[in-house]
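Running co-folding for beta-D-galactopyranose.
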Amino acid sequence: MDLQRLTDRLGGLAYGGDYNPEQWDAQVWKEDDELMRRARVNLATVGVFSWALMEPEEGRYDFEWLDAHLDRLHAAGVAVDLATPTASPPPWFSLAHPDALPVRPDGARLTHGSRDTYCLTAPAYRRAARRIAAALAERYGDHPALALWHVHNEYVTLCLCDHTAAAFRVWLRARHGSLDALNDAWGTAFWSQRYTAWEQILPPRATQWHRNPGQALDFSRFWSDETLAAFRDQRDEIRARSDRPVTTNLMLPGYQNLDLWAFGREVDLVSVDHYPTAPGVDAAAHAAFDADRARSFAGGAPWLLMESGTNTVYERGRILAKEPGDILRHSLTHIARGSEGALFFQWRQSRAGAEQWHSAMIPHAGPDSRTFREVTATGEAVARLGELAGSTVRAEVAVLHDSDAWWAMAAEGLPSSELDYAGALRRAHRALWDAGVTVDFAHPGQDLSRYRLVVAPALFLLSDVNAHNLGRYVADGGTLLVQHFSGVVDERHHARLGGYPAAPLREALGIRVEECRPLRQDERVTLSDGSTATSWSESLRTEGAEALAAYTHGMLADSPALTRHGFGAGHGWYLSTRLDDAAYAALVERLLTEAGTAPDLPGLPPGVEAVTRHAPDGRAWHLLLNHRPEAVPLPQPGHDLLTGTTLGELPPDGCAVLRAR
Ligand code: GAL
């Protein structure tokens, strides 16, 4: 399998980062070789932003400088993750092909002078991208340094130009077949939006008032498909010339809202970038959220943390420094959850240019610095974990994640601006993380039978097929929690009539939601079990379910807020409001107990993260992270790979990797 080949090729887990040597001179390259050896770097991502050097003018390639770097890295024992540079077209390209510059929803065409200034649907861009991918693969396809191909960088640029409009229409014809079907799907009978020719249809550009939700949803689907097609173009050029695995670095937070399940199926290795948005324990929880998503998009297979920041926490307009020890802790969080290594952006902090204040493995201060000492210590730690390569993580709990539901919930004109798809998923994951269990993300249409508990925090859009799948999961013995405003529209963004959620799910939950009643911004409701909630409430009645808690005041007084329904061999729970943190945590604990799930390593106090990686041959390792400021005794002493000693307790804020079997 491809990833196995990566770790085999490296002789262990991957460690390193983006390497942009074109910013420096030969003296520095020499020092790089020595410092990479010291830091135990074995993988460098090269070429991500090198288009201007690789192709100084249209169709004329210059790879000699790159030959020299690849040969030098190979001689220094560093393998290469070779990138296609297509995220950053050079100025000559934009000047020659102004129609390939991206157009914003308001119609403004962006200019060159930054990066990511391209339009994926512009034929000139797609041709140029394919051409340079092919040229690179032709030249380096079997280079001894080459371990991995890295297509593009974080596909994210959105463009609403005329090329996009034309491609959108082609996609719509294939999806809907006829204008009548499209008009029906988009509900154009309202607001006089009926289309009588395909050419009338535009991508969702700036409009006077709410955009049509069906149009916006279809556009998100189209754009995700188009992005994947652009990736495939390059991947296939590479695959025709090279047998090394191909990846593209995904960016998980709301930033990149594509169908990442689909990307997971098309890459040889899922790789992701992660930058925390808050320090301390929140950073650890955020890293776990993204790492669990990465593993899930990889279908449970090993994956790779392609980028992280040695010293970067993006918090509301500031770049905060990481606390001492966080480089190792954050790297281990990802490795615990299935990453085959830890890589950073970038090796050396830029002296000039747009990212000169972004942290790096070697900061401006040079190697005599806290950051580089921690980078070196982390490299040594990762080098001791080689035996974990190829092992995987098992989870008994899943949170449902569906791009359709996410895109649909981005529609304008929903009943509350507080409805937040990504936020709801993160909150559910956080409650489970706090409870110490390992969590997968799952698609509502997939086989869920391996999970004891499934949580659906924001399944606003739900197709009939997926609603049946969830009903079957419960009937077969699963425990399912569905949260408010779920199953409310179908895959065409049409409201479910006769009560929410979608009928097959309603049956499994034994309820019928009659009306949504969003709360005022500062309103808090109290439930009959003493818990409090904000943001949202619903008027619902039970149709077989038991009411576990009811609203206590106002027009919803005495009507159910939290319900539980025995259905077949399982239980369907429904929560119609947004519980406050403590009450939500208590509900999650109760569900975990009812579902009979336990943490990977029971017996640890809250604030200690423990995940187990399993090898196919039965060996296993517990990866432990202590987020508490005091030492924590271990349930059983174990051999720690990081220190090479037997550990009886975890040091304050410390980590360990224990051989379990
Ligand atoms: C990533 C990107 C890198 C760098 C980094 C900064 O999203 O791939 O090139 O810009 O962000 O955090």
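Result summary
Residues 397-595 form a domain with the Rossmann fold fold (CATH 3.40.50.880).
The longest helix spans residues 213-239.
Job closed.
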